[in-house]
Amino acid sequence: MRAAASLAVSPLFPPPNRVLPSSAARIPSSTVAKPSVLLAPAAAIREPRSRSSTRAYGFSGANVSAAAQETSLAIKKKAAEILDDLKGTSIFLVGMNCTMKTDLGKILADALRYCYFDSDSLVEQAAGGVSAAKSLRKEDEKGFRDSETEVLKQLSSMGRLVVCAGDGSVQTSTNLAYLRYGVSIWVDVPLDYLANEMLTGEVSLPIPRNAPESDSFSEVLESLVQQYNELKQGFGTADTTVSLQKVASQLGCEDFTSVTPEDMGLEALKGIGRLMSVKKMMEAASKPF
């Protein structure tokens, strides 16, 4: 049975005094995956399909089911392999907001029997709703940022969570420190793929920053590039990276819409497994003879 977890966002409470758990120890930078290119090849960006049909590209119906079942079983197996080593350590997903990031978070939570939270949604809840959060951000930027920090503070005091973290999680040293209480994963999605998602209505930022109200692909992409440049340094501090472009290449997919959240989930679990292996080797090396 999935462990229960709750978050009282109002009133917000201070976290208990904590020592950084050994399970959240930092991994040498040489082991951290590097991000893929900023923009995807033009041929890889096609009209998005529904999530239920993404696997249908290039497969017959029987093969679709077989491929999906094989991936599902591989996810369960990999999750079982790393569960003991994780010891309840939470997972924080960072990166540009997109449906892939959200779906990936839910798949990881289900596979690990963790609870799922979206930090942006919690900030909105604490502010009194989406409209109130937008107003707060416009009228009191510091107050809004403080709310983001308070939500992360509470989430980092818990265990067995998968948190889809918003932009604010990587914009201050305080927030980055809270991410260190768990394993952080950068969900790296090409910006033109994301722009296409936004224009087709598949994704909308929970709390829009400066995205233009435009149907122009170039204007939306320009805004995303600006936002990405502000955040990429914070994204780069993540313990590991799951790249949509890399996964598509490994699977031999002709376009990114053929990659499912399950495919990304399996790659994320493999990345977590590698981190746990490095951690165990470091702990073994530190023991006296």
From TrEMBL:
Record InterPro entries: P-loop_NTPase (IPR027417), Shikimate/glucono_kinase (IPR031322), Shikimate_kinase/TSH1 (IPR000623)
Main location group: plastid
One Pfam family named in its UniProt record: SKI
Domain of life per record: Eukaryota
Compartments it resides in: Plastid, Chloroplast
PANTHER family for this protein: INACTIVE SHIKIMATE KINASE LIKE 1, CHLOROPLASTIC-RELATED, SHIKIMATE KINASE
Protein name from the UniProt record: Shikimate kinase
Lineage: Eukaryota, Viridiplantae, Streptophyta, Embryophyta, Tracheophyta
